[in-house]
Structures are given as structure tokens and as C-alpha cells.
Specification:
binds molybdenum atom; Sulfite Oxidase, Chain A, domain 2; binds the ligand Nc1nc2c(c(=O)[nH]1)N[C@H]1C(S)=C(S)[C@@H](COP(=O)(O)O)O[C@H]1N2
Length: 246
């Protein structure tokens, strides 16, 4: 159980920790529900606003392994790759006021965040790399989330057999300042094997959440009814945890 005093203290931490976040109507509802949680769960949620560790340029790994799919076979993606992605755009749709097609060039000229972070794969390897791109929260603000939106889904160009790769995160991670759509890795345009032209970096989570070859972002109220319903390719096919916090 939780006393009234500790509820107020916990709520105060949440509000001061992320006032940008709580201005979103969908998150207001979340904050209200969070106030009904018992204290350990609430502490856990508060800690999710912390930043992932960032490293110095000297610590960037000389080689960064490419993992999973390293070359989509999708005709549309291949056609764009052959044009150097010069006519490629990101689709933003679902529970948004203004569905958008944002050209790659426009994504590169929005305010950028650059971060040097460690990527941890469940298969037991890690690598430090520098990522740059616009913050996801800026893109979501442009599109305007509707109040029912609870999850952001990242649809990718690659598939394994019949199953397309996709991933999803909640609004806490979507509005986290280190959650970016990276078009640049180690100072160069994102290489094909690492997800060209655009990938997700959601730095508080494991490697499989870092969706490569992102073509479309969808805001949804629920993950039910989408592919296997577990919110991601590996979650559906292998039972990996949906929240892969590190
Ligand atoms: N679209 C897509 N994204 C993906 C994958 C994939 O196969 N397809 N593999 C995931 C896994 S398990 C890891 S560890 C990282 C690997 O990213 P990297 O190739 O840049 O090292 O991408 C993740 N994102
Ligand atoms: Mo991975």
C-alpha cells in the first residue's frame, strides 16, 4: 500500500522529471494511472526517465558487428537504395492528427541529437557507436498524437520468410530524449547493413528493439491484432520480452 504523502512525492518526481512528456494528453492519462500503482512499480517507472550512459569519441568500437537482416529484399526499398535514398520518405500514421510523409532530407535538417552509446545484443556481444538523427518526440509532436495513442510501432522494410520485422515502444520511451531516428552512424550516413536509411535508437533497451530499415511509424492504442500481437518480431517468434530494459 501507498500513503497519500508518498503518492504526492512520487507524482511530483514524475512531473518535474518530464514536463514536456506530461503535456501530451495521452501521457496525462498514464500519469493518473501511475498514481494508482504501488510504490515499487512507481519507482521503476520514474527510473525509466534516466539517461543511458554516453561515451567519448575515443571509446567508439573500431568494428560494430551487423546482426539480423543486413539487406532487405523488398522491391521498394531496393529501388530507393539504388537512388541513394534521395526520394525516400518516412511515413507517420495511425492515431495522429496529421499523417506525414517526411523526406529523408527534411529529417536531416530537423534539430539533431548526437549520442555515443553502447548497443547490447542478447546474443552476447556489445559495441559502442555514435548515432545522430532527429528526436522521435519532435516527429511525434509534428504529427500530433491523438489522446488514444499508447504505443509507437516501427515497421521495417525487411522480412524473415513471411514475417516482417517490426518493433514497438510505449510513450515513455517514445518521448525519452535519447530516442532518435538515426540516419547517421559514426559520422557517416547509416550503412546498409546497419539499417539504411533510417533506424530507431532507443538507448535504454536491448539490441533487438533497435529497429533497422524503418519505413513507417504507426501510433496505436493497442498492440493486439498486429502480426503476432506481442509488439515485435522477436517477441512474436521467440517469446523475447517486449520491454527489454538494460
Ligand atoms: N529491421 C531489423 N531491425 C533489426 C534487426 C533485424 O533483423 N531487422 N535485428 C535486431 C538485432 S537482434 C540487433 S542486435 C540489432 C543489430 O543492429 P546492427 O546490425 O546495426 O548491429 O538490430 C536489431 N534490429
Ligand atoms: Mo540482437
Amino acid at each position: 500500500m501507498i500513503t497519500r504523502r508518498s503518492m504526492i512525492v512520487g507524482g511530483g518526481l514524475l512531473l518535474s522529471g518530464c514536463d514536456k512528456l506530461v503535456r501530451q494528453p495521452a501521457v496525462d492519462g498514464w500519469v493518473e494511472r501511475a498514481a494508482g500503482l504501488h510504490l515499487p512499480a512507481q519507482r521503476l517507472l520514474v527510473s525509466r526517465h534516466a539517461l543511458a550512459r554516453e561515451f567519448s569519441a575515443r571509446e567508439i568500437s573500431p568494428t560494430f558487428r551487423a546482426n539480423g537482416n543486413t539487406m532487405p529484399e523488398d522491391d521498394g526499398w531496393i529501388a530507393h537504395a539504388n537512388q541513394g535514398f534521395s526520394r525516400w520518405s518516412l511515413r507517420v500514421e495511425g492515431l495522429v492528427r496529421r499523417p506525414l510523409d517526411i523526406p529523408l532530407q527534411a529529417l536531416k535538417t530537423m534539430p539533431q541529437r548526437r549520442q555515443i552509446t553502447r548497443h547490447d545484443c542478447v546474443e552476447g556481444w556489445s559495441a559502442i557507436g555514435q548515432w545522430m538523427g532527429p528526436e522521435l518526440r519532435g516527429i511525434l509532436s509534428l504529427a500530433g498524437l491523438l489522446p488514444q495513442a499508447r504505443y509507437i510501432v516501427f515497421h521495417c522494410a525487411d522480412r524473415t520468410g513471411e514475417d516482417p520485422y517490426y518493433e514497438s515502444i510505449d510513450l515513455i520511451d517514445a518521448f525519452h530524449p535519447q530516442t532518435i531516428l538515426a540516419w547517421s552512424m559514426n559520422g557517416q550516413p547509416l550503412p546498409v547493413e546497419h539499417g539504411a536509411p533510417l533506424r530507431l535508437r532507443v538507448e535504454r533497451q536491448l539490441g533487438y528493439k533497435q529497429a533497422k530499415y524503418v519505413t513507417r511509424i504507426e501510433a496505436r492504442a493497442s498492440l493486439a491484432g498486429l502480426y503476432g500481437g506481442k509488439g515485435g518480431y522477436w517477441e512474436d517468434v521467440a517469446g523475447y520480452q517486449w520491454y527489454a530494459g538494460i
